[in-house]
Automatic annotation (TrEMBL):
Residues 83-244 form the Tc1-like transposase DDE domain. PANTHER family: HTH PSQ-TYPE DOMAIN-CONTAINING PROTEIN (PTHR47326:SF1), TRANSPOSABLE ELEMENT TC3 TRANSPOSASE-LIKE PROTEIN (PTHR47326). It comes from Camponotus floridanus. The lineage of its organism: Eukaryota, Metazoa, Ecdysozoa, Arthropoda, Hexapoda. This is Transposable element Tc3 transposase. It holds the Pfam family DDE_3. One of its GO terms (molecular function) is nucleic acid binding.
Length: 250
């Protein structure tokens, strides 16, 4: 009836993040009726949360410079982007990551609601490194505890670079390596090792091509691989860290 519709409307106006199930419990109105009130009566739509990295003032200029540099190299060599190893680290929590499906914003217009991706933390987790080159996966390699420059240099030497060499074979001397500007990637020994192995063929902080900070939309791991893996890993809830690692390997 109109009174219940009004009460539902007032609840959503007071808390635009209310879920349909919460409204159903609050007002003793069926889930279908709640949907009908929100979408047909109020003309509201459920907008999903987007994970973001907050940008600094000079970030857009750095991103443009990077993209222009890459486009110039691709124009000179159509296969340039296919010879880049894009890499990244991610954390898989045993109890799952941010559940976007349950994070809604009801409104008549898209408010572009977003949250800082640094705000989600869970105790039991697996840290993993992976790379992508020309649609092939390098790794994954698991990280024991938090990543440090010392651990990262050892991973490059013992795991990552040998895996890249096994994939690209004789084309290694034309292969580029990319990583972002995270503190472990900036260690003196890390940069020295990259300079020794790849010489000028690496992208990152103080690399021959600077990687623009806070640019997840520019690497296929952030905008594709991690989300794809997490959707597969958490189809059924893993019961242990070991099971979580096994699913990531698959």
């Amino acid at each position: 009836n109109e009174e219940k519709q009004l009460n539902v409307a007032l609840s959503v106006i007071e808390d635009c993040h209310s879920t349909v199930r919460k409204l159903h419990q609050q007002h003793n109105v069926s889930v279908g009726s709640i949907h009908n009130i929100l979408t047909k009566k109020l003309k509201f739509h459920p907008y999903k949360v987007t994970l973001i990295h907050e940008l600094n003032e000079d970030d857009p200029d750095r991103r443009i410079d990077f993209c222009e540099t890459l486009m110039n190299r691709i124009n000179a060599d159509n296969n340039f982007s296919r010879r880049i190893v894009f890499s990244d680290e991610a954390t898989f929590e045993l109890n799952g990551n941010v559940n976007r499906h349950n994070m809604r914003y009801w409104n008549s217009e898209n408010p572009n609601w977003a949250i800082d991706s640094r705000s989600t933390q869970h105790p039991q987790k697996v840290n993993v490194w992976a790379g992508i080159i020309n649609n092939r996966i390098v790794g994954p390699f698991f990280i024991d505890g938090n990543l440090t420059a010392e651990k990262y240099e050892r991973m490059l030497r013992e795991d990552i670079i040998p895996a890249i060499q096994a994939i690209v074979g004789d084309d290694f001397e034309r292969t580029w390596f990319q990583h972002d500007g995270a503190a472990p990637h900036y260690g003196h020994d890390v940069r020295a090792h990259l300079n020794n192995v790849f010489r000028t063929r690496w992208i990152g902080r103080r690399g021959s091509i600077e990687w623009p900070a806070r640019s997840p939309d520019l690497t296929p791991l952030d905008y594709f691989l991690w989300e794809y893996l997490k959707n597969r890993v958490y189809q059924n809830k893993p019961t242990s860290v070991e099971e979580l690692q096994q699913r990531i390997r698959q």
